[in-house]
Write a structure and sequence with these properties.
The protein has about 450 residues and is of the alpha/beta class. It is about 50% helix and about 15% strand. Among the domains are: about 55-185, Rossmann fold; about 205-375, Rossmann fold, CATH 3.40.50. The protein is built from 17 helices and 13 strands. The strands form three sheets. Strands 1-2-4-3-5 form a five-stranded mixed beta sheet. The protein has a five-stranded parallel beta sheet with strand order 7-6-11-12-13, sandwiched between helices. The protein has a three-stranded antiparallel beta sheet with strand order 8-9-10, with no helix packed on it. It starts with a helix and ends with a helix. The relative contact order is 0.13. The protein binds NADPH dihydro-nicotinamide-adenine-dinucleotide phosphate and (2Z)-2-iminopentanedioic acid. NADPH dihydro-nicotinamide-adenine-dinucleotide phosphate binds near residues 165 and 239.
Length: about 450
């Protein structure tokens, strides 16, 4: 459809050098072709042109002083992408690879992901190129305070509600919340992923990983399959990976790998979850420490991965859970997985698969759950945290977990029904993109040109 192509070409010219954002946009726009043909109203209202353009982009300077007394300067971002369905909602990422294109891709994905949850949340994302690795606790605190000293004026419990992402967990949310409260003089649910001691929700920590496994379970159930007794590979070793591993054990599967940016662990007997939690959540160690406690496990540094491959995906498995970062799984990795009989890929990370890897999974007709559907459990549970904060009540772990499982089920049903409606029943990329887009687009039309 030349019209969609024109919009995409204009996007590339008008927002140069944002390759991750083009990749995310291209995948969504590709999926929308059949919808645009069937319903000309989206074209008449210029929804595509409007939806790829953030409502507001905030770029700011963050200066802070390190432990040596030296001034450090970082870039800060908050992209308020789309508020048709509710207050902007989405995480903050602290990682040296962060730039405007990365935050924009994450914010763009977040619009459709949040729509798929069926909850009243718009899409946003933010972060900084600050590198938390090797920083002292005091440096983390000073950075978080400096970051919030600008961000506070742009956010609020009913306008924009950030949360965690890579490099931002409960500790960072705590320091940012403290600074927000001081500057805004308000104690409100302005951030999610808070500590359970002062406003957090039970099961938010677990939600993204648990949700990605629930999503895999529902995809598989539909094909008469289950995860029980199956070997699974997981990448990453952060929040999403840890709770993916935990839920896989609950369902009787055996997770045999995890990784970080330096290398991977292969533990044929199954990853030792308690050890992993102790190393990552308590001691903040690297994965090289893992093999000191588990002599039978194998550590492979990234330099020893086969050429242009991620070592995690060379391990034969029934299901794969990419849970580290964008573009960690390329076409070679997809081919390795498929050649080894992998039947299910459920993405805990945002856009972990390159576009050609996505096409390989779709063409193979395996159970493939794209990130914006499979990892939506995190943001959905953030909304449950907002609901509890606003009504001043606390739900039990079981209540939140039950709602999470129901939401993941309804996302699966909505993506697969939409995929079937457009003639490709196993293509959940098509289904998720169209189902998410439709909700946002219809709201934009009904709310007028604002
Ligand atoms: P964490 O910071 O807790 O963990 C990130 C993990 O990914 C670490 O093991 C890290 O290794 C690895 N990683 C990060 N960047 C790279 C890289 N460039 N190359 C290789 N490995 C890398 O983050 P989360 O677990 O919260 O996030 C993981 C993914 O899940 C991200 O894509 C995030 O956007 C997505 N996500 C997170 C949600 C949440 O609720 N937290 C919700 C939905 C999606 P290392 O320590 O070496 O950097
Ligand atoms: O990518 C994501 O959905 C997140 N990092 C979680 C966002 C949120 O607001 O909980």
């Amino acid at each position: 459809m030349p019209y969609v192509k024109e919009v995409f070409e204009y996007l590339k010219r008008s927002s140069p050098s944002q390759k991750e954002f083009y990749q995310a946009a291209e995948e969504v726009l590709e999926s929308l072709r059949p919808l645009m043909i069937k319903y000309p109203k989206y074209r008449d209202h210029k929804i595509i042109e409007r939806i790829v353009e953030p409502e507001r982009q905030i770029l700011f300077r963050v200066n802070w002083v390190d432990d040596n007394g030296e001034i450090q300067v970082n870039k800060g971002y908050r992209i308020e992408f789309n508020s048709a369905l509710g207050p902007y909602k989405g995480g903050l990422r602290f990682h040296p690879s962060v730039n405007a294109g990365v935050i924009k891709f994450l914010g763009f994905e977040q619009i459709f992901k949040n729509a798929l949850t069926g909850l009243q949340i718009g899409g946003g994302k933010g972060g900084s190129d600050f590198n938390p690795k090797g920083k002292s606790n005091n440096e983390i605190m000073r950075f978080c305070q400096a970051f919030m000293s600008e961000l506070f004026r742009h956010i609020g419990a009913n306008t924009d509600v950030p949360a965690g992402d890579i490099g931002v967990g409960a500790r960072e949310i705590g320091y940012m919340f403290g600074m927000y409260k001081k500057l805004a003089n308000k104690y409100e649910g302005v951030l999610t992923g808070k500590s359970l001691k002062w406003g957090g929700s039970l099961a938010r920590t677990e939600a993204t990983g648990y949700g990605a496994v629930y999503f895999a379970k529902y995809m598989l159930e539909d094909r008469g399959e289950t995860l029980e007794g199956k070997k699974c590979v997981v990448s990453g070793s952060g929040n999403v990976s840890i709770y993916t591993i935990e839920k896989l054990y609950h369902l009787g599967a055996t997770p045999i790998t995890c990784s970080d940016s330096n290398g991977m662990i292969y533990d044929a007997e199954g990853i030792d979850l308690e050890l992993l939690k102790e190393l990552k959540e308590v001691k903040r160690e690297r994965l090289t420490e893992y093999i000191k406690h588990r002599p039978n496990a194998i550590y492979t540094p990234v330099e020893e991965y086969p050429e242009d491959c991620n070592g995690v995906y060379t391990v034969p498995c029934y299901a794969a859970f990419p849970s580290a970062t964008q573009n960690e799984l390329n076409l070679n990795d997809a081919k390795n997985l498929l050649a080894n009989g992998c039947f299910c890929v459920s993405e805990g990370a945002n856009m972990p698969s390159t576009l050609d890897a996505v096409h390989a999974f779709i063409d193979a007709k395996i159970c493939y759950g794209p990130g914006k559907a499979a990892n939506a459990g995190g943001v959905a549970t953030s909304q449950l945290e907002m609901a509890q904060n606003a009504s001043m009540v606390n739900w039990t772990f079981e209540e939140v977990d039950t709602k999470l499982a129901q939401i993941m089920k309804s996302i699966y049903v909505s993506a697969s029904a939409t995929a079937a409606e457009f003639g490709e029943p196993t293509n959940l990329v098509l289904g998720a993109n169209i189902a998410g887009f439709r909700k946002v687009a219809d709201a934009m039309i009904e709310q007028g040109l604002v």
